[in-house]
Design goal:
This protein has helices at about 1-10, 50-60, and strands at about 30-40, 65-70, 75-85, 90-110, 115-140, 145-160, 170-190, 195-205, 210-220. By secondary structure, the protein is mainly β. It has a single domain (about 1-220), classed as Porin (Beta Barrel). It has an 8-stranded antiparallel beta barrel with strand order 1-3-4-5-6-7-8-9. The radius of gyration is 22 Å and the shape is elongated. About 30% of the residues are buried.
């Protein structure tokens, strides 16, 4: 749903493309707004949730003896950008990124207060706000290579729900932190107003691990 929205906006923007796009090689300073969508990959080793499941069960008053838990790695992402392009080579950008959500299941054997097993569902939601510097290297015909380096504040909402009718519970653990974001990609700017980007980024440190990789397509409008 997120990617078709961006594609529709990109098609509507085509009316702003200059007829002589191939002659555009330099750009005046401008502010810009952008929207993008893509695919994320959560870089948590195996997305293993055993430790998290044990902690939640202990919090609920159960004594787990053998737990298994895992989640999917893939997410659908959505981003909003606001930035300033100084010239053909440099920009600064503030971004809000919905890094998507994942789902999974858990199963645990418990010894207290009764000897039985519990099964349930796990879900995660990820978000980030970042500020980055961007460097562009024009290669002609409105196309540039670019790199990104900045810092971001991430949030992770982690929910657990038991499917057991006798030992049912619902709980959540919310964590957050600050770390770096870096990446790069390809920019195509066919007019002074419109820009398209294909980009790969890594949001480091989410869940105190490698973080989340995001591959996205964005449309930017300069004004």
């Amino acid at each position: 749903m997120k990617m078709p929205l961006v594609c529709a906006i990109a098609l509507l923007s085509c009316g702003s493309i200059d007829a002589n796009a191939e002659s555009i090689t330099t750009f005046s300073p401008s502010w810009y707004l952008g929207i993008g969508a893509g695919k994320g990959e959560v870089e948590v080793a195996g997305h293993d949730r055993q430790e998290h499941v044990d902690n939640i069960l202990l919090k609920q008053g159960y004594d787990p003896t053998n737990s298994l838990g895992s989640e999917d790695d893939g997410t659908d992402t959505l981003r909003l950008n606001f930035g300033h392009r100084f010239d053909s080579h440099w920009a600064v950008e503030l971004s809000w990124i919905d890094l998507g959500d994942t789902e999974g299941t858990f199963h645990s054997a418990i010894s207290a207060p009764v000897s039985t097993s519990i099964m349930g569902e796990i879900e995660s939601e990820y978000r980030s706000i970042s500020i980055s510097g961007l460097g562009f290297y024009p290669i002609g015909w409105g196309v540039s290579l670019f790199g990104r380096l900045g810092v971001h504040h991430w949030e992770h909402d982690h929910g657990f729900k038991s499917n057991d009718s006798q030992l049912g519970f619902r709980d959540a653990v919310d964590t957050s932190g600050n770390d770096i974001v870096w990446g790069g990609g390809l920019s195509y700017r066919p007019s002074h107003q419109v820009e398209f980007r294909i980009e790969w980024e890594r949001f480091v440190g989410i869940e105190d691990e490698e973080g989340i990789d995001n591959k996205s397509l964005s449309m930017i409008y300069h004004f």
